[in-house]
Amino acid sequence: MKGLTGKVAVVTGANTGIGKLTVKYFYEKSARVILACRDLAKAADAIDDIKKQCEDKENLGQLEAVHLDLQSLTSVKACAKQLLQSEEKINILVNNAGIMMSPYMLTEDGYELQFATNYLGHFLFTLSLMPKLIRSTPARIVNVSSEAHKFISSIDFDDLNWSKKKYSPLYAYSQSKLANVLFTKELDSKLKRNKINDVNVYSVHPGCVKTDLGRHVAKQFYIPGLLWLVETATSYIFKTPEQGAQTQIYCSVDENCANESGLYYSDCKIIKSSAAAQNEEMAKKLWNISLKMVGLEENYNPFK
């Protein structure tokens, strides 16, 4: 892997877990790294901690935090506008932020929380930054998905907000992660149709990682002592954040995948996604519906 001197990377949800480890790697490789986070105080703490860990290293990059609340389309637009104005280029975009198995909730825009946070906000964020990414080639976009996308066979376009059926935190999470893979596939297709070269897009499964992402899981099935049991078990069978960050780092910078795009990765290699995730018609339909949900015109073209 080459150094990243002169490169600019944006990482969402970067103040903890695999996002923070990804930022640290880019920083050590001399990149300018922007932490796009909902909580700027936590982002500042993460920056201080990363700098402290790297005190004895040379040729470090730069770290900066910007506010991004993926649950708010207004916030997504404001953050993208800020980056378009402040950054001369963006070479790497890692859509890392996410929540898992949260209780039922609608965002301020009226969308189911997990779908909005894990997918829809990143959809708008990516399209908003696309002109800058295109002018910064070679550029890479990494969408963090999950093997949980295989738990469902389709996107429920008739009830994306779970207003007609009983809410399932697990299946809502799975639907948002299936959307990530379908988005990657359709984005790659549109880049190629618009003859955009050297902008590659990847979806990744980081593995089962011991982070605070699973904080809602035990609460869904509360039994005294269950949280302790889950935490103890995961310390033995789950990946560490360092291990979990490796695939998104690989797709962000490694020369071995420089000519690959639109594919699904785990453990730093291509693996097969579900049949639903390879459904071209579903990917196109999701794209068109997503445009409407975020308030963009049907003929909106971020590839000009």
Q: How would you describe this structure in keywords?
A:
eight-stranded mixed sheet; 304 residues; alpha/beta; 42% helix; 10 helices
User: Which strand-content bin applies to the residues?
Assistant: 5-15%
Radius of gyration from the CA trace?
18 Å
Order of helices and strands: EHEHEHEHEHEHHHHEEH
Cα(first) to Cα(last) distance is 31 Å
Describe the global form.
Answer: globular
- What composes the largest sheet? 8 strands, mixed
- The proportion of residues forming helix, as a percent range, comes to 40-55%
**By helix and strand content, what is the structural category?**
alpha/beta
Sheet with most strands: strand arrangement: 3-2-1-4-5-6-7-8
Low-confidence stretches: 213-219
The whole-number mean of residue pLDDT values reads 92
DSSP, total strands = 8
Question: What is the helix tally?
Answer: 10
Describe this structure in words.
The chain is 42% helix and 13% strand. The chain is built from 10 helices and 8 strands. Residues 213-219 have low confidence and may be disordered. The longest helix has 25 residues, at 169-193. The two termini are 31 Å apart. Strands 3-2-1-4-5-6-7-8 form an 8-stranded mixed sheet, with helices on both faces. The radius of gyration is 18 Å and the shape is globular. The chain has helices at 17-28, 40-53, 73-86, 113-134, 169-193, 217-220, 226-237, 241-244, 246-253, 280-293; strands at 8-12, 32-37, 62-67, 92-95, 139-144, 199-205, 263-266, 269-270. It is of the alpha/beta class and 304 residues long.
